[in-house]
Amino acid sequence: MCLAIPHRIEEVLDSSRAVARTGSLRVEVRTDLVDEVNVGDVVLVHAGFVIEKCEERDGLELEELWKEVLKVASQGRSEREN
């Protein structure tokens, strides 16, 4: 199974690398598998590689869904700690 996380491109470093952010996490990602990324693009990242570039509307929806996943996961973690 593959888990791809939505990130937003913050900086393009060169033709095969960029800096992307998801939440408070800022990481360098490889862009070899997609045609082109630009600052502001929402992309799906798996194992440090951008595997898909999203349309803006879809990207916004994915970002919101990912925030919900993290919220639910953190609630479950705090319940287990109590």
Task: Provide an overview of this structure.
The protein is an alpha+beta fold. 32% of the residues lie in helices and 39% in strands. It contains 1 helix and 5 strands; from the N terminus they run βββββα. It has a 5-stranded antiparallel beta sheet with strand order 3-2-1-4-5, with helices on one face. β1 and β2 (17-22) form a beta hairpin. The protein is elongated and about 45 Å long. The N and C termini lie far apart (31 Å).
Give the amount of beta strand, in percent: 35-45%
Approximately how much helix is present in the residues? 25-40%
Number of helices: 1
Radius of gyration: 14 Å
Cα shape: elongated
The strand count comes to 5
Average pLDDT, all residues: 90
Order of strands, main sheet, comes to: 3-2-1-4-5
List the helices and strands in order.
EEEEEH
Largest sheet: 5 strands, antiparallel
Task: Lay out the secondary structure.
Elements: E1 5-14, E2 17-22, E3 25-30, E4 42-46, E5 49-53, H1 56-81
Antiparallel strand pairs: 1-2, 1-4, 2-3, 4-5
What descriptive keywords fit this protein?
single chain; 82 residues; alpha+beta; 5-stranded antiparallel beta sheet; 1 helix
A few lines on this structure:
The chain is an alpha+beta fold and 82 residues long. 32% of the residues lie in helices and 39% in strands. The chain is built from 1 helix and 5 strands, in the order E-E-E-E-E-H.
